[in-house]
From TrEMBL:
UniProt name for this protein: Protein kinase domain-containing protein
Pfam families the UniProt entry points to: Pkinase
PROSITE patterns xrefs: PROTEIN_KINASE_DOM
Single GO BP term: signal transduction
Residue stretches making up the Protein kinase domain: 1-89
Amino acid sequence: MAPEVIRGEYQGPESDVWSLGCTVIEILTGKPAWQDRGADTLRQIGYSEELPEITVPIPEDLRDFLNKCLRRERSERWSCDQLLQHPFLVSCSPPSPPQITIDTCKFSPRCVFDWSVSSSSNQSTLEIYQFDIKNSNAKQRICKLASNSGANWESEGWGDG
């Protein structure tokens, strides 16, 4: 929560930029940017000059990016457009698009999370759905779904009803 939000002042895109900085710190360190001590933490964020501590080594351009996000005065924080032009983000190259094949487009999930439905009426509701963890590979399933070609509404399973 940005300092101005805690103080009950105007909330805008600048507050979101503060939250982005805190989120990046949490991603880097694996813990929240501010230690949760209830009202003391809110007072610290809203009324002190302290900034979140970064406890892991990071490149200088990332440190500068975070400093632009975490300015105490909202008018001094960089805008989203400015941050998108920051050297830290500009230096990041986007990932290559996945190679799409015809076989990729043929896959469509038929059930949620690889749950299989048993037709046995003697089983309880909890026993009907079984998750096959050994054959579950989320990354492979997602890769099969990735496609730039759009949906094939003519494939089996998409009836006219």
